[in-house]
Amino acid sequence: MTQTAEFQDGAAYSGGVFMPVAEAKISVLDWGFTRSDAVYDVVHVKDGRFFRLDDHLARFERSMARRRIAIPESREDVKEILVRCVQLAGLTDSYVAMVASRGRPQVKGSRKPADCANHLVAYAIPWIDVIPAEVQERGATLMVSDHPRVADDAVDPTVKNYQWSDLTSGLFDAVDEGFDTAVLCDARGMVTEGPGFNIFAVIGGGLVTPEHGCLHGITRRSVIDICAKQGIACRTGDLPRTDLESADEVFLCTTAGGIMPIARIGNRKIEAGAPGPVTRRVMDAYQAMHEDPAYVTFIDSPTRFAAAE
Ligand SMILES: Cc1ncc(COP(=O)(O)O)c(C=O)c1O
């Protein structure tokens, strides 16, 4: 991939135009900013290929529908815009975001969401990990936060959204106490998710991951698919905090980082190591999925936007 200096930090699409990522701005009056009234999705590019792009686009469309946000661009448009952003940025490994914002009311002074002009912003930037690579290497330390995750019926966590107050509080608490990151529980004491990732516990050789209080991550789905293929027992459902705290192995998973082993949870070291044997198996299979044509989309495919930047 070629890259020009102006796009070296990434490329964005906003207001129907492509530009260097630093030039992409939204209004201070945009409800996406003033009310976190936006939905988004993030897909990754590894070795010049998108991973599960159609699954991310489908989830993005579902999130928009659930929040009654409708952008002018079709799914095919969004796909081509993302490809074009990656091409302009010249990236072979990239963090690629699509954001649908409520926008600004088109009727002066209106407080009605339906009066807003919804719009798409997209960008491709160099790869980032939600847990730094060197931390993943040694295994992250995880705090089970006492800060509760917002209730599902207040903010639907399966709609990918920017309501991160609780996750951010958990992260502050964790870092203040010397941990790398945090996972939050719901009001019932069931584990949910953390700032930017889902969680799996390995208990008695099988996997358990929460069903409620969390985004149904695409990486989580990949892990569930891997388990089905490899005959590893995997259950989605309630995961009590105490079960997580005594689990044989624990790993986090997300688009921006993949499968991330936990070395210590609270004050307890994971004896199986980081990664332990089951986590290692899942990590290897997840890496192999990136070679499977069923899951990848090449970024050198031509787009209708190629001439229109
Ligand atoms: C709150 C939250 N949970 C889970 C995830 C993992 O989802 P995915 O695997 O689709 O990246 C993310 C990803 O950003 C997230 O923000």
UniProtKB/TrEMBL annotation:
GO BP, sorted A to Z: amino acid biosynthetic process; branched-chain amino acid biosynthetic process
Keywords of this entry: Amino-acid biosynthesis, Aminotransferase, Branched-chain amino acid biosynthesis, Pyridoxal phosphate, Transferase
Catalytic activity annotation: L-leucine + 2-oxoglutarate = 4-methyl-2-oxopentanoate + L-glutamate; L-valine + 2-oxoglutarate = 3-methyl-2-oxobutanoate + L-glutamate; L-isoleucine + 2-oxoglutarate = (S)-3-methyl-2-oxopentanoate + L-glutamate
A Pfam family per the record: Aminotran_4
Presence of the UniProt keyword Glycoprotein in the record: no
Family classification: Belongs to the class-IV pyridoxal-phosphate-dependent aminotransferase family.
Protein name: Probable branched-chain-amino-acid aminotransferase
Lineage, uppermost ranks: Bacteria, Pseudomonadati, Pseudomonadota, Alphaproteobacteria, Rhodospirillales
